Amino acid sequence: MPPAVVLLSGGLDSATTAAIARDRGFDLFALSFDYGQRHRFELEAAAKVSAHLSVRRHVVLPIDLRQFGGSALTAEIDVPKNRTAGEMEKGIPITYVPARNTIFLSFALGFAEVLGAADIFIGVNAVDYSGYPDCRPEFIAAFQRVANIATKAGVEGTLRFQIHTPLIDLTKSQIIARGLTLGVDYGLTHSCYDPAPNGRPCGACDSCQLRYKGFAELGISDPCA
What we know:
About 35% of the residues lie in helices and about 10% in strands. By secondary structure, it is of the alpha/beta class. A 5-stranded parallel sheet has the order 3-2-1-4-5, sandwiched between helices.
């Protein structure tokens, strides 16, 4: 099976993305980041998802984005709670981590080049999301162009990198439905931005609300609620 690097946060979207990559016949190499996030509990979920999906190798890379701050996820800034759908659709929220997906994809690209992997999977979504600019198709297309002109493998033509975004046009309920057909155990995942010390989701942040909405639209309960 050809190798692929999958960005695995431990959340619902990344778990589904990894399952899709496996279903497409790729040998999975998962990459997670311990970046100083307040919801660091997600790394435990990533480890469980990795084992569940028979990932060949799971790398957890430490980088301290708290040194920069600028986000409710990496600084002492309150996570917005109980926002309406209309509020979520307006502007870029304070939970945006500056350049996070650019940073993550850069590391994934380096990992992929070493592995000889032309394929990188990321669970970005441009439908049910909180307005993050680095989840849009134009960003992914731009990064893919960079990947193929900024690497030895790309310049020499030994690899033609492709950034896969299988969830980009799906609603949260469609993502969950797809994952269920692939056997994803969503009870292993974690999506909350501001969990309790034991990992219990707050149920009120944007991420929790979007997740609950997805399960509700399918008429099923969130196993983590």
